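hey so i finally got around to running both of the ones u sent me last week. sorry it took forever, my laptop kept dying halfway thru and i had to restart like 3 times lol. anyway pasting them below in the order u listed, first the sequence line then the structure token line for each. didnt double check formatting much so if smth looks off just lmk and ill redo it

first one:
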Amino acid sequence: MPHSFGYRARTRHMFKRGFKEHGPVKLSTFLVNYRVGDIVDIKANAAQQKGMPHKYYHGRTGIITNVTPSSVTVLVHKVVGNRYLAKRVNLRVEHVRHSKCRQEFLDRVAENSRLHAESKAKGERVTLKRIPALPRNSHTVCTKGNAPATIVPLAYETTI
């Protein structure tokens, strides 16, 4: 049972830097453009203690609602009891990164628009809906020339 209940209590592994990622923050972090409405992931960077999120928001995804020269405001929905609260968290840009959660959707939209334009030029209809994977077709396994084999694990042997 922990004896300290500070703001960063029990974050020893959560806030640590990755392997070979220690040291100052890369300059490319500050060159990323953030706009209102962008979806971002919150991941605290331990090299910059200013503007760091509370441990609850580490790993959460939110929407940017305000942009300042060195920080952003992120709207995160937090479960409190039986409801969601819209929490606005002010973070420095070192602690956020663009989320890839919509990338598959955006790729699909671009692909669908390309297919739609091609089919319109040819004058035919094309189905753009996603189709779930169907069950595999049934088949019969024949044992003629295909003798059943018993699979057993290999015995452990030491070579010392």
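and the second one:
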Amino acid sequence: MRTKSIINCLFLNGVIKVFSFGKDSPSVHYFRRASYRSIRLRSDRSSNDFREPSADDALILLNEAKALRAQASALQKQLNEEKEEKLRQEIAKVDSLIDSLLFHGTTNLSNNESVSISTSTQSTGEEKRSKQQLMNTEEKVAELLIRKRLNYDQVNQMFDRICELANRPQSIDSCSPLLSLLLDAACKVDCLEREDNPNKRWNHRVERDLRRKLFALGYGIRIEDVQKKNNVRSVTGEKDYY
């Protein structure tokens, strides 16, 4: 019994036709030859489209690479400027906090008359004595630490800023008057009972931790660097060998 099959959608010369014929019909062999010939023509056409890159192509790619490098350089420059601006804003914020916390009579003065941390650490003689007279008392600074609801991180930033502007090594035996005032006031707040301290952001270990940091600075050691190194060792498993 002869079986018949339907072969649909034969693309021959761009015309769609439907043929009905048996599997042993000569038309089947013709269809197969036509299909192979169509595939071979498409393959030849694709191979003709390929060409070797020219010098113009290389020049175009070179120009594109230069443009990308210039764009990357501009983005990096913009990123650096944004980081520097952010750092300047943070420093200005810390300086303003120090002025409002450790000095009195600075908020209502003009910019030319106000006392700032950046100038007070560089004064000598009569100027230094007059600016020391504008420093708040220990009790007043402790009151402001509570009222402004400052925490350890903010006090630590002020500590670092005062050390930076002191222009001399700081230690337990020899430290800036501003640093001493800040630590003594922090000690007063630390000594309060937690229930009596409305500043719930205070951890009551501020003075202890900063005294330890000041002690290490006297020997040229930065506590933050040691802690960072210990954190790395806890991850890598590195050990000291003595």
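quick thing i noticed on the 2nd:
Confidence is low (pLDDT under 50) at residues 1-21, 26-31, 107-115.
anyway thats it, ttyl
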